[in-house]
Design a protein that fits this description.
- This protein has 243 residues and is of the alpha+beta class.
- The chain is built from five helices and twelve strands.
- The longest helix has 40 residues, at 17-56.
- It is rod-shaped, with a radius of gyration of 64 Å.
């Protein structure tokens, strides 16, 4: 067998179809290299673009609320006072206090003398005084004002006539309620009075006349027996009557 006919020499291969095969392979290698380089450059550009975007934007950190039961600290509690919302809020204007109602002091009650005359027998409850009618020493719950029989008796102060009675000792007795716990009592009156029970009378209005109906004081000169009672207790009329 001839060795020269069974193999091909490299020179003949390169001069024949082999030349084109080598040329194709080179072109393929060059194309693949170019594609790889282009792909790498594009990836690098995208990475640089991403870095620039991240660098140009502010990154906010979001703190998720802690789960229930954990030691969570509200940042508003540790913030400086000048940054707290409640510190920045303007204080609510104080509501003006309502002026306290000042009530005028009650005017003192004004009394007038029920009759004109001298006090014949004064008020006395802490000491005994001689009684010319009973001829003994005893207390006296009012004042006896000497005057003429038939003299007009005036309401010492405005009020309502609450009773007119005929007492066995003090005769005809008329009582006026003044509405503040005070009552005035007029005794030794004539039987007929100028006003009736339930009537309202003003101070100085005639309510009756002086009589001689008080048997316990019949030994005295004509007079009006006058009492003032405060919450039911007798008080000295001279403390309230004008001097």
């Amino acid at each position: 067998m001839n060795s020269s006919s069974s193999g091909k020499s490299p020179e003949k291969f390169l001069t024949g179809k082999g030349f084109y095969i080598v040329l194709f392979l080179c072109a393929a290698v060059i194309g693949v290299s170019a594609w790889v380089m282009a792909t790498g450059n594009e990836a690098m550009k995208k990475a640089e673009s991403t870095d620039s975007v991240i660098g140009s934007h502010r990154v906010e950190t979001v703190i998720a609320p802690a789960a229930e039961g954990s030691d969570w600290i509200d940042e508003s509690e540790i913030a400086p006072p000048e940054l707290r919302a409640d510190a920045l809020a303007e204080p609510a204007p104080a509501e003006p206090e309502e002026a306290a109602e000042v009530s005028a002091p009650a005017a003192p009650a004004v009394y007038v003398w029920p009759v004109l005359g001298e006090i014949e027998r004064p008020y006395t409850v802490s000491a005994l005084a001689y009684d010319v009618t009973m001829r003994d020493w005893r207390t006296h719950r009012g004042v006896d004002i000497a005057c003429a029989e038939g003299a007009s008796v005036l309401a010492s102060r405005g009020g309502q006539v609450v009773s007119i009675v005929h007492d066995g000792l003090y005769g005809t007795v008329l009582t006026i309620d003044h509405g503040d716990g005070m009552r005035s009592v007029y005794a030794n009156l004539a039987e007929d009075t100028a006003v009736g029970e339930g009537e309202w009378v003003d101070p100085g209005v005639t309510i009756g006349t002086v009589g001689r109906s008080a048997l316990c004081e019949i030994g005295q000169e004509p007079h009006l027996h006058f009492e003032l009672r405060q919450s039911g207790a007798c008080v000295d009329p001279c403390v309230f009557l004008p001097a």
